[in-house]
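To assess whether the prediction recovers the assembly geometry, we first specified each molecular entity separately, as shown.
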Amino acid sequence: MPELAGAAQTLENSTGSAGVEGLVSTLKDSFGERCGTSAALREQHGHTTTWIETQPPDAVVFAQTTQEVSDIVKLCAAAKVPVIPFGTGTSLEGHVNAPHGGISIDVSQMNRILDVHPEDLDCVVEAGVTRKQLNSYLRDTGLFFPIDPGADASIGGMVATRASGTNAVRYGTMKDAVVALTIVMPDGSIVHTGGRAKKSSAGYDLTRLMVGSEGTLGIITEITLRLHGQPEAISGGVCPFPDVQTACNAVISTIQMGLPVARIELLDSLQVRACNNYSKLDLAETPTLFLEFHGSEAGVKEQSEMFSAIAEELGGGPFKWATAAEERTRLWTARHDAYWAGKSLKPDADIMVTDVCVPISRLADCVQATADDIQAEGLLAPIVGHVGDGNFHVQVLVDMDDADAVRRGKDFVERLSLRAIDMGGTCSGEHGVGQGKRKYMEREHGNALGLMKAIKLALDPDNIMNPGKILP
Amino acid sequence: MPELAGAAQTLENSTGSAGVEGLVSTLKDSFGERCGTSAALREQHGHTTTWIETQPPDAVVFAQTTQEVSDIVKLCAAAKVPVIPFGTGTSLEGHVNAPHGGISIDVSQMNRILDVHPEDLDCVVEAGVTRKQLNSYLRDTGLFFPIDPGADASIGGMVATRASGTNAVRYGTMKDAVVALTIVMPDGSIVHTGGRAKKSSAGYDLTRLMVGSEGTLGIITEITLRLHGQPEAISGGVCPFPDVQTACNAVISTIQMGLPVARIELLDSLQVRACNNYSKLDLAETPTLFLEFHGSEAGVKEQSEMFSAIAEELGGGPFKWATAAEERTRLWTARHDAYWAGKSLKPDADIMVTDVCVPISRLADCVQATADDIQAEGLLAPIVGHVGDGNFHVQVLVDMDDADAVRRGKDFVERLSLRAIDMGGTCSGEHGVGQGKRKYMEREHGNALGLMKAIKLALDPDNIMNPGKILP
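The predicted structure of the complete assembly is given in tokenized form:
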């Protein structure tokens, strides 16, 4: 593929921040106070919630419309200055950093819910709308937006990183949730991908190409999302297991039997201990599944009973389940606070968060090998996972001032990423590549990486869109 | 977008079949009897099951491995001769025609099922495996592959056209069914996209870009498919409605309530009459829904009762449902024979088949406007649709020797396509673009078409991969 080698070479020649000063001056003239250059603002916009060092942009512009985003990108394109999209800054792999400087386009003020179509189970939102904002808005419609990555992320950011979370086992990921997009391309042109039909076989799936492209192919400004009816009934509960293998076997059986489980989450013993401490639970400190079922009253009862039988047959259980909302809320609040519970194990430590995803048949092997690795290295690192998808997270508690500890943490993340890839999985199930996982892309994708580079070069020949992310 | 205008221009300059004679001679030397040039073989490989005129390739090569496909494509690339992938030839929009000549690569001998992973609910197949072959193979595993486009298409062809069918309302389309692909690119290189993890956020979604690309970006040779557990119980039945609007309202309510209906198909009065005649049914000749529910014994009973109540409340029904396999089989055989039933209305006629898809809220409007159009034009054209997705088909019965009738049929298809697009839908829900729907691509996609052309140009700069399809 000679043309792909050429593409790779061109990507290296990022034009960086030439001409950025004049550009910032023009942006200030146009946007007034909505264009900021204070150190605090810039630092905040390069900040990521994980361990990757902050690289602030040259300026931050708060856009309010797709047309404004287009205007800004056109100026950046003319000056060949990088553009970094910013939603809520809750991404985990350095996605919002500006390694070559440039303009951070903050879409948080683009937070209008433009349309809800209950008959079509879809809605149209601006990129800065957050998932909690959307679900509050939808509450009285009988509909909800299921994708839940934990953080109250912007929908635009969730599209960009192909987010998923606890409900993905039933409702899919952002790949499945996005129906159509409005995107500002690297030349500033405004493009609409997809339509409102539930399916189409008319042409290349540009929508899916943009989902997960992390701002490297364009800036997502409006999203048409698929919604779901709020379930009539919900039940949920916790189920202890003697070991990780048995818990994973229960997950496999559950999915093979076609139980439409809405959430099925694994916490390892250490994570259970952390949650007991932090959220005042009294769970047995053993590998534990948190489950939730959605359906009719009879349906959730049937599902709960079937899961109970599966767990018991495999030597797990008892499965304690409840349909009472307050009890479920208490449990799932604990699950959602797993990050803070983990941190409470060593309050003065920082956290390196990472995630991988493997075929579910390899999940127990991968979790066990990872737990062994954690023990051998003497790390403090609870494991929690969306195991119905074969996806799990490790939080490595690290003192970021201790260079040796940081190195050991990074080495652990590298071993974990390669272990997942070697098992036929991926170095990131839902956090994205950003800066943190770029170095694994070749191992994971082989020469398909050349195709990604060719597409990047075709759509963004000057490499101004979020340079230094995804592609090595 | 100056670079996109350039892309469009280059696509016009297809290099056609220069050098094809020497190439065919080389292929005959290498492949012996597996490279054929007889008129009958070539005609059959340009043949489409619809009204578009046959344009045969210069030669047909039966490939048996990915490496052979790669070898053939490398030769074609060197000679700048078009490559047209061929599975079973059941596509409907001229996908396998060779308007610029070239080599048809027939993958029907690549029909091995390479792997089934019951724990991961996936399998790996070669492109020439057909869906019925796969399901026969899977029968004893408790798993099945749900996507059902009617014809016993090859899996490779189903990926290429982003096929779906009656089960898509519950199980999704090929977009959702494909986990990973092996593809021979336009330069002959072999690329693997995706992995076996159920989800990933590591890089551009090349898999989804290839699904629906109709052989214009590469030839799909191996596919990893998501499978599903065979449902414990199935129930199904038919429900008459006084008019199309009421039937569509019942569909909308069913989906809004989250009933996980597995199939929900609309037949208009004429189609019901045709099925009564052809399949010896005695249904009332009024708009009718055919339904199927999958789940536990209790679940399908509950779903059937809930649908019954919905239909009754809206003025439809009675919904007659049964769990007995023979009764269901009789009904669904009739549904699957709808094409032949339609043809039986005028046995000496040919059929122009077309499909569109609209947001479900516009479905009744679109079906009604189309029925009015059929009546005003005096066409004989039954309607049948996967209405849970907003997708429907029209079979226009036409005497292809009557130029005026053909023109009126084509004009009708054009009005239908534009009507669907103008309602926020698409000119093809599941048949693809091929040659037949190229002219609607600009209307449907606007300047997003420029992105498609840029991607095509980046990956296939000499435009050798199935030229003259999708992109106008």
